[in-house]
Write a structure and sequence with these properties.
The protein contains 3 helices and no strands. By secondary structure, it is mainly α. It is rod-shaped, with a radius of gyration of 24 Å.
């Protein structure tokens, strides 16, 4: 059952279904009994943290790129281009 939950948690995190991952993690943690299971849970949680941190960093970079692109779109369309300016 734990390996099934482990896979389901990884799938939920990988697809960005964080509410589902949280629900599954709660069920997963209730089943932990031995030191080996706790160690495995620690490894899983470390993976989840790394995955979500990386996803957040990538999202932040994309938002920064979008922000820069929006600034270019805000230029007034009636401005003359350098090739249109009479010298």
């Amino acid at each position: 059952m734990q390996s099934t939950l482990d896979s389901a948690i990884r799938q939920a995190v990988a697809t960005g279904a964080y509410a589902e991952a949280n629900r599954l993690l709660s069920a997963y943690c209730k089943q932990l009994e031995t030191a080996d299971e706790l160690l495995h849970a620690k490894e899983l949680l470390n993976w989840v943290l790394q995955r979500t941190s990386a996803a957040r960093a990538h999202d932040a970079a994309r938002l920064k790129d979008l922000s820069a692109a929006v600034e270019y779109r805000r230029l007034p369309s009636d401005r003359l281009h350098t090739w249109q300016i009479e010298g």
